[in-house]
Amino acid sequence: MSKIVKVLLLAFLAFSQMACSYINSTDNLDNQVDKLLAQMTLDEKIGQLVQKNGDHPNLDKMIEEGGIGSVLNQVNPDEVLRIQRLAVEESRLGIPLLIARDVIHGFRTILPIPLAQAASWNLTLVEEGARVAATEAASQGVRWSFAPMIDLTRDPRWGRIAEGFGEDPLLNGEFGAAVVRGFQGDSLSNPTSIAACPKHFAAYGWAEGGRDYNTANISESDLYDIVLPPFIKVFEAGAATTMTAFNEINGIPATGHAPLLRDLLRNKWNFQGVVVSDWESVTQMEVHGYTQNPKQSALKAMQATVDMEMASTAYETHLKELIADGKIEEKDIDDAVKRILRLKFELGLFDNPYAHTAEFPELLNPKHLNVAKTMAQESAVLLKNSNRVLPLSDDIKTLVVIGPLADAPHDQLGTWIFDGRKEDAITPLQSLKAMAKEKGIELKYHRALETSRSKNIIGKQAILNDVRRADLVLLFLGEESILSGESHSLANIDLQGAQMELVEMVATVGKPVVATILAGRPVTFERVEPMLDAVLYAWHPGTMAGPAIADLLFGVVSPSGKLPVTFPRHVGQIPIYYNHKRTGKPASNQTWERLDDIPVEAPQLSIGNTSHYLDYGFEPMYPFGYGLSYSSFQISEVKIEGSKLSVGDKLIVSALLTNTGDHEAAEVVQVYTHQLVGSRTRPVKELRAFQKVLLSPDDSAHIKFSINTNDLGFHNPAMEYVVEPGQYHIWVGNSSEHGIQLSFEIIN
Ligand code: NOJ
User: CA 65, 71, 74, 78 torsion: positive or negative?
Assistant: First the structure.
């Protein structure tokens, strides 16, 4: 070996030891982080707080200079490998990148939208689905997903209702935690695990009028008792990160909200994980009118303990100046860097920065597709089934399939499907054709409307001819995927275009009509509901919509979904939700709900004084927790152990569930409580527990719930969390409107 080569080799060894001197797998994590931090320049530290999109023009250079901590939206495994190599092999300290992506309901195998997942009321299944998504994403080098979204909302106009778990705090918390467990697995360091990012902190779903990004005017009690509790659940489940929100909360943008982020999340809840801003939400504080310039935005976000800035450039441009000005200390930056480095160590990125794609299960493998199919089946909600028209009887010889969503492989996938492909999707039409062939059924198909928004019905005469010849009509209605999701809010949530006219036209023939609705939100369709014999609400079911829906319609499996959100009759009823307050003049069944019924020149007080609409009453179209089955169930022997409980005791509730019908089917038993009198008025009902149980005909199951009385509290007028002594009602039932009622008392 020549002298010069030897010198170079020694120099290289010395350098590589120096570069990696912080990596020592036997050292504890904090020491490793501290050792690395001690070697970092201020620029390198700030670099860790920067997140850039995969197509950023200076990406490579910035990575080589240690100027980027995380890259989002780069999922081509070759590219991911290339940029990770740049970070690990070319930057001075070799700190790996955190590759991030919105893996919202599946990666390549697209699962039902999250709102649909909540309709399954099956936590194990949703956790399994998240595991599928994590494994597929991690196989491409993605180790951080911006999900679950647990922004509780009471507004189906809001396009992002599709992305969350509905209107209830317990459901949002439990399903959010299930996704966290599925993503993060037993250990973040497992190469198939990805870090979860419950979002958006906070109150993003409270957007005024359901207009996305809009102001959240929210009472302290709704914020603390309705919106924030799901976040506590996901952090208890170990969520590694969270994301701030675009909206302002009572005048302060969420991304600069120190009372919520620093005082509550960090100091009170002791959240040690990474807080990332939303896309440019740091600099948008200026647009809100809360800061004067990007420098002040950086200051506000830093003071609120936002660790990483997504996409905008306030941190990289101004943090140094802010230290020089004495507005922040280097320690503030150190704290943020430590949290980010810690996550990278926990993910095992220092030891194993590159994804070994070939060692992972294939994308879209049969196991993954089967999970997607089961989820699509369990999340469909049977809203109506007159004369038991479903499941389709063996006597059916001719079917006609009609509608814009029967064969819409792109739209059945729903919103946020960056990595899903319509070529992978199996549509209801494809599956129904296959099943019809097997059963010797003649099947005709008419798209009728080009899209869900089209105003012209194509081929009216041909449709009517086929309907006349058919034994039954299967309509596929709903929304295209583009009509829900981020910034895709609607003022009118009726079935769009000429869909209602289509129903009316088909119904005139008098054949049984079954509608399957694929949508990203509750849509309103009261006008045509009486013309439909059955309605199956399938949401946007994902890749396996076809096989799932065909099995449901033909009765291979029974529907078992329950609504995670109240369905209004009319958009003007919004907000309408099950856990509302009583008011001093509660509405009753005597309430008017048809303007025409009101006598002309009726005296002012003759038509009652209760809280309702003269034209739409007070009831929803379908209540929260509702959903039918092909079977029937009886809930009996409802008991609670002890009628007087102290705070901290467990409330033990039991019941017997019997399948009294003739199909194997699952029922969701739901427990609600109501505190009769409180220092602040209490909602009429609050979901406390649920269990989904599969039973064969005539089988019964004893069901037991253990509810911690500590969880029955709320924030009193002094904003202290209290569980108050007094009388409570409890219901055990199969929807928020049907249950067997008992009472108990909490004593001092
Ligand atoms: C904006 C969305 O609000 C957020 O949820 C998402 O994760 C980011 N864009 C990144 O795509």
Answer: positive
Q: Give the residue whose CA is nearest to atom 11 of ligand 1.
A: 102
In this predicted structure, what is the pLDDT of residue 26? 67
Residue with more model confidence, 606 or 481: 481
If you measure from the C-alpha of residue 99 to the centroid of ligand 1, how many angstroms do you get, rounded to a whole number? 14
Average pLDDT over the chain, rounded to whole? 96
pLDDT digits (tens, 9 = 90+) for 602-612: 999 888 899 99
**Any ligand 1 atom below 6 A from CB of 102:** yes
Ligand 1 and 146: CB distance under 6 A: yes
Residue 21 binned pLDDT confidence (cut-offs 50, 70, 90) = low
Quick one: CATH architecture of 372-553? Answer: 3-Layer(aba) Sandwich (3.40)
The strand pairing partners of 667, in sequence order, are 693
Q: What is the pLDDT of residues 670-717, one digit of tens each?
A: 999 999 999 999 999 999 999 999 999 999 999 999 999 999 999 999
The closest of 458, 396, 399 to 431, measured between CA atoms, is: 399
In this structure, the dihedral spanned by the alpha carbons of residues 456, 459, 464 and 465, taken in order and rounded to 10 degrees, is 180
Give the HSE-up count for residue 628: Cα atoms under 13 Å, Cβ half-sphere: 18
pLDDT tens string 488-535: 999 999 999 999 999 999 999 999 999 999 999 999 999 999 999 999
How far apart are alpha carbons 136 and 283 in whole angstroms?
A: 33
What whole-number distance in Å separates Cα of residue 183 and Cα of residue 187? Answer: 10
Instruction: Give the H/E segment covering residue 78.
Output: helix 77-85
**Nearest atom (ligand 1) to Cα of 197:** 7
Cβ of 101 closer than 6 Å to ligand 1, yes or no, is no
Torsion of CA 476, 477, 479, 481, to 10 degrees: 0
β-strands 700-708, 650-659: how paired?
antiparallel
Q: How many whole angstroms separate alpha carbon 381 and alpha carbon 119?
A: 7
Reported as type and span, the H/E element at residue 501 is helix 499-507
- Model confidence, pTM: 0.96
What residue spans define the domains of the chain?
Answer: 201-215+227-269+276-324, 372-553, 633-747
The catalytic site residues sit at 278
The enclosing H or E element of 253 equals: strand 252-253
Q: What one-character-per-residue DSSP string does 651-716 give?
A: EEEEEEEEE-SSS-EEEEEEEEEEESS-SS---S-EEEEEEEEEE-TT-EEEEEEEEEGGGG-EE-
633-747 maps to which CATH number? 2.60.40.10
Residue range 84-94, pLDDT digits in tens:
999 999 999 99
Taking CA atoms only, the protein residue closest to ligand 1 atom 10 is 279
Element spanning 294, H or E: helix 294-303
Q: 309 CB less than 6 Å from ligand 1?
A: no
- Candidates 692, 110, 73; CA nearest to 371 is 110
CA geometry: angle 195, 198, 203, nearest 5 deg: 160
3-state SS track over 138-184:
HHCCCCEECCCECCCCCCCCCHHHHHCCCCCHHHHHHHHHHHHHHHH
Q: How far apart are CA 253 and CA 202, in angstroms?
A: 10
